[in-house]
Amino acid sequence: AIMLELTGGMTYIVPFMLAVLVAKMVGDGLSEGIYDLYIVLKGYPFLHEELSITFTERCCDVMETALQTLDVGARPRPAELRALLDNFASYRGFPVVNGSHFVGY
């Protein structure tokens, strides 16, 4: 745009912009960008765009309803903690709460 303004070719701005837009769309439709191809040729690690994923389930359908928590407000004794860990050995962690307030995981 600056070059067209300096040369006095203001009437060419819109056709020039349309030509660039069409060229970009055609280029994107025919192949990947040159930099993407260069990365593949060199074998560099490259993260492609993630696919858009649409979830059909609701949160309440996949969440656990009978949740085991560790209530630090009740000040559990070591024996109670050990029993909790033994009874739920397959769990990877427990939500830590203080009464009804979430403290951590």
Automatic annotation (TrEMBL):
Keywords: Ion transport, Transport. The keyword RNA-binding does not apply. One of its GO terms (molecular function) is voltage-gated chloride channel activity. Gene3D superfamilies: Clc chloride channel. This is Chloride channel protein. It comes from the Eukaryota. GO terms for cellular component: early endosome; Golgi apparatus; plasma membrane. InterPro entries: Cl-channel_core.
